[in-house]
Amino acid sequence: MKLSKKFNVLKRIAATMLATVLLFSLASCKNIGKTEDDEVKIPAKKVAILVAPEAQYPEDYRAAQELAAEYPNSVVIKEYDDSRILKAGDPGIITHSVELANNPEIGAIIYARATQYTRNAIYKAKEINPDIITVCVEPEEDIKEIAELSNLVYCVDWAKAAEDVVAQAKTQGAKYFVTFSFSRHISGNSLIRSEIDAFKKACEAQGITYIYENSEDTNKSTQIPGAQKYIKEAVARLYLNNTVEGSDVALFSTDSSVQSTLIEQANSRGLIYVCPSFPTAYNGLGEVYDIETPEKISDIDKYIKNAKDAVEADTEGTGRLCIYKYPLATALLKAALYSAFDMMNETMTAENMAEKAIARANLAADSKDFTVSAYDNSANVYMAYLPGFEIIR
Predict the structure, then answer these.
(1) Is 388 left (phi over 0), alpha (psi -120 to 50) or beta?
(2) N or C: where does the chain have the smaller number of CB atoms within 10 Å of the terminal CB?
(3) Considering only 7-16, 80-89, 156-165, which range has the smallest mean pLDDT?
(4) How confident is the model at residue 9 (pLDDT cuts 50, 70, 90)?
(5) pLDDT in tens, 147-167
(6) How many C-beta atoms surround the C-beta of residue 27 within 10 A?
(7) What is the pTM of this model?
(8) Are the C-beta atoms of 101 and 126 separated by less than 8 Å?
């Protein structure tokens, strides 16, 4: 595949960038305030944001819509089918990428959540238009392969997130922490493997028994219903085999499709549910309870109030439930958009990407508690997190 000169330059001088990355990852971990350089300048071409349906990733979907409304002449939205549901033919994320790469008005594509098939989607897009810029958020496929193809990647700092989630579970009384995942996630993505390791390490630090359970992949013929049924059976087996006892058990899964099942199990057995597969208020609880979504997706306080009202109305549920109280997906998507603008304007280059990518993430987050740094000494991958959970019940 023939890539653009800019993209090749990025790869050739990655080694030089590493020194800059390390410098700024230390100096820019905290938001240090806005400067004149924070101005968002609109490029000549448009940015396309590819999003999953609202039912799959509500915060990402709504955040993309809000950015399109804020920049109506510069941002277009393309929605692909739920990536967890297998269908015949090319996945929508690939079809849309090819379409956008053929559109001379499009200068960049952002994968608001880089689900499976993103790697092939980027490859095909750059094969058609080597100059097109791509930015990915939280890759589901191997992050190193995605980073090789994409210009820039933003992801969750799972080392910090795992510490936060497990500490909250400990506060809720957890003696066991059960993580469900499957081989496609574990073997196919070093980011998720490091996430699993971070949870295990955090549990050891908190004196909590860590348990890993292999679960059903939605890519199998039984798809989402099969994955959800498997979780129910797996929880029952944990008790039947005396792997866990009592109700001080926290449940977590890297699979977004089983969050409602985890909450249902928590409610029926009095267990603990802290966080969905990505730190967001809008997955998990909203799939079980009828929670009114605020007009602005970033208005988490209003959503939390609505969530508490909905959960309080459930007089039969006994689960100990928490909610993440920061719009992290929104912040990462904004950072991706600002960075795409900068790369199209050639104000973010290989030489200054470390400084610019971190600064753009801080601008998007607008919080002194937000941290962002280079991932695994990478030249174009940055991980971010802001701690904070609130008890719903």
Answers:
(1) left
(2) N
(3) 7-16
(4) very low
(5) 999 999 999 999 999 999 999
(6) 12
(7) 0.89
(8) yes
> How does strand 320-324 pair with strand 389-391?
antiparallel
CB 58 within 8 A of CB 282: yes
Please, is 322 exposed, middle or buried when counting C-beta atoms within 10 Å of its C-beta (0-12, 13-18, 19+)? buried
The neighbour count for residue 373, using CB atoms within 10 Å, is 20
Distance CA 23, CA 15 (A): 13
Give the whole-angstrom CA distance, residue 341 versus residue 85.
Answer: 32
Q: What are phi and psi of 79, to 5 degrees?
A: -105, 130
Report the amino acid identity of residue 327.
P
CA gap 294, 190 in Å, rounded:
35
Judged by DSSP in three states, 138 sits in coil
Range in 6-15, 101-110, 223-232, 350-359 the model is least confident about: 6-15
Q: Which residues contact 154 (CB under 8 A, 6 or more apart)?
A: 135, 136, 137, 138, 332, 335, 336, 357, 361, 381, 382, 383, 384
Element at 264 (helix H, strand E): helix 259-269
Mean pLDDT score, 369-392 = 95
Dihedral pair phi/psi, residue 132, rounded to 5°: -70, 140
The span from the CA of 73 to the CA of 71, in Å, is: 6
339 exposed, middle or buried (CB, 10 Å; 0-12, 13-18, 19+)? buried
SS3 state of residue 109: strand
- The answer to whether the CB of 158 falls within 8 A of the CB of 195 is yes
Per-residue pLDDT at 13: 44
Report residue 147: phi and psi, to 5°: -65, -30
Q: b/e per residue, 40-61, with b = 16+ CB within 10 A?
A: beebebbbbbbbbbbebbbbbb
Confidence of residue 173 (pLDDT cuts 50, 70, 90): very high
Which residues is 346 bridged to in the sheet?
none
Residues 284-318 as b/e (b if ≥16 CB within 10 A, e otherwise) read bbbbbbebebbeebbebeebbebbbebbeeeeebe
